[in-house]
Amino acid sequence: MSLGIRFVISSIALAAAWTLCLAETGQSFHPGPASQYAHQSAFGVTIGAKAFDNEELIAEAFGKKANLLKYGVLPVLVVVENKGKEALDLRGLHVNLVASDGRHVASVKPEDIRYLDKGSRRTTVNPLPVPLPSKKNPLTAPEILSRAFTAEFVPVGDSASGFFYFEARFEPGDRIYLDGMRSARSGQELMYFEFPLQQE
Question: In this structure, how many other beta carbons lie within 10 angstroms of the beta carbon of residue 90?
């Protein structure tokens, strides 16, 4: 099977999964083009990013019950547009939040977000003989997983988008740093991208 056919099949599968998610949650969210957000372009690739740093934005993307900011989780929407000459391999992509003083915070895996609720930490011992009913963890909202950035490849002329999650508070001067993108054909790594999350 050719690389192009695999890309088409993957795109169809992702679209079907996205449609199913919307049908199940009833929550609709449509990211804009990369240029709509703070962005940087190089070699035909444009990366756009936006910090969802207030309750209105959080509700728009994840629903009103999943108040990620309350638990110290900052979602950052990332959009990758490929108008270059080769498909992009994103399997080695690393994304960091960089503060104005140089502090780096790596993104948290979407499946680990649920454990950032202090009452839902992983544990191997139950001190009580009978488990007590627990309050539902808002960090298990299905949108957190379904809207995470999961793309592994971006064909020429296509785009991919999704959220990266950081255990951090948004601060003025924060920047997004992305590296590990490669040419799907040659395996050569592209330059890194780093730009402020607030547009000038």
Answer: 20
pTM over 0.90: no
pLDDT of residue 76: 98
CATH 3.40.50.300 fits 31-196, yes or no: no
Domain extents in the chain: 31-196
In the predicted structure, residue 141 carries a pLDDT above the cut 60: yes
The phi, psi pair for 8, rounded to 5°, reads -65, -45
Cβ-contact 44, 84 below 8 angstroms? yes
Collect contacts of 29-33 with beta carbons under 8 A, ≥24 apart. 29/60, 29/61, 29/143, 29/147, 31/77, 31/79, 31/161, 32/79, 33/79, 33/81, 33/159
Cβ-based neighbours of 97, under 8 Å, separated by 6 or more = 74, 76, 104, 105, 107, 166, 168, 174, 175, 176, 177
**Tokens 């108008």 belong to residue:** 83
What digits encode the pLDDT tens for the residues 85-94? Answer: 999 999 999 9
**Structure tokens belonging to residue 108:** 């948290």
